[in-house]
Specification:
single chain, mainly beta, Jelly Rolls, Immunoglobulin-like, six-stranded antiparallel β-sheet, five-stranded mixed β-sheet, 1 helix, 29 strands, rod-shaped
Length: 363
């Protein structure tokens, strides 16, 4: 199964003067960590640029993205001016080589952030014209679904962040009017595995899956409902017995019926091979006669030979004694054995028992 690709705001993001997902853009360097003070936010990392903004802010709860930190463009500090209306594009390229990739991002910003995937706008938070909206954007995380704009192959995720004319303004520096953005998310490809992936009707099959963003998934066999599986830490296990189906390839699917995100695995239904043994022998013999015994062996109607079949014939005399008969292959699944009735042997019923074995088939 495919592990998720995690991402957070850190100093590995390239900063541009335009969206590189739309064409040419000039790189300004790598993002830098920024903090209002050395203790705001409380997770301020070592080496971060300290703006020196003493009136508080950036109160978003980052516990769901603990590795994320507030970032901004390089070569900016608390004295840099003007701070208002500066916008930067934080961008990274992701290679998603599997089909049907999905992605989510949670983000907070001071003052505005616009999310883009491959040059297309997903959504935005905050404002550069409304102070209340801008304040809300830095006080909590907002989650966006990136899935509709993702594609198989190369994907460019860009966050356009802009600082508004708030705080001590205008003109302002970053100590009086700080700017920053913080985010985290993941990309994942829904996947399931079936074990075993082939077998006859009634086979017990385990389905293991991940990457479906739901607390429950619906499992089907050729679109026939099998049951509901609960996810734990993003994964699930579901067990079923193969229902009535024709031999051949069939589809096991697990998915969320509401988002229609799903994954499919192949299961091959094999036929149930039936071993058949028919023994033919005359009903009346006299002492001194030779009884000829014919045994026909087939597997699901296909004649067997000495290469695939192990055959043993045992004759039980009327007195309870046994003798193993020698068999000779005649052809087309037919075997022949002979037994000469002793001239002084016991008179009564003689029984012939045939035991046959074929590899991987019930005797």
């Amino acid at each position: 199964m495919t592990a998720p690709t995690m991402f957070v705001s850190d100093t590995s993001w390239q900063v541009y003067n335009a969206d590189p997902g739309l064409g040419a853009a000039t790189s300004l360097g790598l993002a830098q960590f920024v903090c209002l003070t050395s203790s705001i936010p409380s997770t301020c990392p070592a080496g971060a640029t300290i703006y020196g903004h003493s009136t508080g802010g950036w109160t978003s709860d980052l516990s769901s993205i603990p590795a994320a930190h507030w970032i901004w463009a390089p070569n900016i500090n608390g004295t840099t001016t003007p701070a208002e209306f500066n916008q930067f594009f934080f961008s990274k390229t992701f290679q998603l080589n599997e089909t049907q990739p999905i992605g989510f991002i949670s983000i907070s910003a001071d003052d505005l952030a616009e999310l883009r995937v491959n040059g297309h706008i997903v959504g935005s938070i905050g404002s550069i014209s409304d102070s209340a909206t801008a304040t809300r954007a830095q006080a909590s995380l907002t989650t966006f679904n990136l899935t509709p704009l993702l594609k198989t192959g190369t994907n460019v995720l860009t966050i356009r962040a802009e600082n508004g004319p708030f705080g001590i303004c205008c003109p302002s520096n970053y100590a009086g009017n700080p700017g920053g953005v913080v985010f985290g998310g993941f990309f994942i490809v829904p996947s399931i595995e079936v074990n075993p992936n082939s077998g006859p009707i009634g086979t017990k099959v385990s389905v293991h899956g991940s990457g479906i963003p739901s607390s429950q998934v619906e499992v089907t066999f050729d679109d026939a409902f099998l049951g509901i599986a609960n996810l734990t830490n993003g994964t699930f296990t579901f067990t079923f017995n193969v229902p009535e189906a024709q031999p051949g390839l069939h589809l096991v699917k697990a998915g969320d019926p509401f988002s229609e995100i799903s994954s499919v695995a192949n299961f091959t239904v094999t036929r149930i091979d039936t071993l058949a043994i028919n023994v033919d022998v005359g009903t009346l013999y006299f002492p001194g006669d030779t009884a000829t015994i014919y045994t026909l062996a087939t597997l699901s109607g296909t004649p067997l030979n000495t290469t695939t079949l192990r055959l043993q014939l045992t004759l039980t005399r009327p007195d309870g004694s046994n003798v193993t008969l020698t068999t000779a292959f005649v052809g087309a699944g037919m075997f022949r054995s002979e037994y000469t009735v002793p001239t002084t042997g016991p008179i009564g019923t003689y029984a012939v028992v045939a035991k046959a074995h074929v590899a991987d088939v019930q005797d």
